[in-house]
Amino acid sequence: MSQAALYLDYAATTPTDPLVREAMLPFLGESFGNPSSVHRVGQEVRRALDNARDVLAAAIGAESGEIYFTSGGTEANNLALFGVLMAAKEQGRNHLITNPAEHHAVLDAALFARELGFEVTIVPVDEFGMLHPEALAEALTDKTALVSVMHANNEVGTINPIVELAKLTHERGALFHTDAVQTLGALPLDVTALGVDLMSVSSHKIYGPKGVGALYIKSGVKCSPLFHGGSQERQKRPGTENVPGIVGFGKAVSLLPEWREATTARLLPLRDSFITRFPQAFLNGHPTERLASNINLSFVKPDGETMLLALDLWGICASSGSACSSGSIDPSHVLTAMGVPRERALGAVRFSLGRHTTPEEIEKAVGTVQRLVESGLSL
Ligand SMILES: Cc1ncc(COP(=O)(O)O)c(C=O)c1O
């Protein structure tokens, strides 16, 4: 990070923890073996991989054999959707349900599934971006193979009622997937308590390396592979493993108890003090059922992109929506799905807080945003 940067974009990515970096280093050097090799050089690496799997499994209340490492949250989501849809065809189920506030890694995958001939229902969300059980109940049919609803939204931080949604889904004999990429570092996650069959997580949102994630697939759930090749990840994800990445992810997961709950508790008042300082702005997302790290405000003026550029000049890093869509002048698909009018959606700025966010940083950011709003943005 450059010296002067005040980073408030932790939902886009997080800095790699130095302990994670240290844990990875041997696997970029002397521990170079292929974990599939039978010899000692390979088996030493295999043990590190197994350890990372055990650590992640324990952290989410799963069995080690239910964890499949992937290249990140995007691949985990695609594997969940297409893997289940392809496998469910045999049982005569070809219907996928999701909602328009999902990350593109689910939403665009769902739209592609429709192009491939699967039946896809996009159930509307409410004004906070939340999917209601009643809305899901109306869409479920005996042909539904999978319901995919994100745990917490990456743009507006709204937390969905996963337990109820999963229960309804199971009552109709379908499977439930949740994208928990934004919640692994925010809330305690237990796959049994949540009642999910598949769950996606990603390393770079929890101070681990980029390009690695995992899909939890409950034992017995049928999910076909997307790739075909070797027998890695029990043939669900062939290809020689990203060993340094997986080891780093495992280390990042092992550090969660040291900071996750404490950080959430510390960020809550910081988030709320930031929001209350802008009574003239609209808060996007649920007022209470939202991540402690998420502030998404629409300023009447200036527009979000101009605000972002101005903030950057003042050394403050924020986002106008999901990182993947910044640079686009279209309003965020999440805000649009919530029924936010175009102008207000274009005025949205997301500040996402993290482990290193201090009260002083929040004060500085609030002061800068206030000056920019008052100035009408004459820099
Ligand atoms: C909710 C959500 N899902 C999926 C992803 C994609 O994860 P990855 O960057 O690991 O592919 C992101 C990342 O922005 C996200 O926020």
SSE layout:
Layout: E1 6-7, H1 18-24, H2 40-59, E2 67-70, H3 73-88, E3 95-98, H4 104-115, E4 119-122, H5 133-139, E5 144-148, H6 162-171, E6 175-179, H7 191-194, E7 198-202, E8 213-217, H8 243-276, E9 282-283, E10 294-298, H9 304-313, E11 316-317, H10 333-337, H11 342-346, E12 348-352, H12 359-375
Parallel strand pairs: 1-11, 3-4, 3-5, 5-6, 6-7
Antiparallel strand pairs: 2-8, 7-8, 9-10, 10-12
This protein binds pyridoxal-5'-phosphate.
Pyridoxal-5'-phosphate binds at residues 72-74, 77, 103, 105, 150, 154, 179, 181-182, 202, 204, 213, 322-323.
CATH class designation of the largest domain:
Alpha Beta
- Count of discrete domains: 2
Number of helices: 12
Identify the overall geometry. globular
Rg from C-alpha positions? Answer: 21 Å
User: What is the mean pLDDT?
Assistant: 95
**SSE string, helices as H and strands as E:** EHHEHEHEHEHEHEEHEEHEHHEH
Name the structural class. Answer: alpha/beta
Q: What distance lies between the first and last C-alpha atoms, to the nearest angstrom?
A: 24 Å
User: The CATH topology of the largest domain, please?
Assistant: Aspartate Aminotransferase, domain 2
Ligands, deduplicated: pyridoxal-5'-phosphate
Per CATH, which architecture of the largest domain?
Answer: 3-Layer(aba) Sandwich
Beta-strand residue fraction:
5-15%
Stretches where pLDDT is under 50 for at least 5 consecutive residues are none
Query: Strands across the major sheet, in which order?
Result: 2-8-7-6-5-3-4
State the major sheet. 7 strands, mixed
Compute the number of strand runs. 12
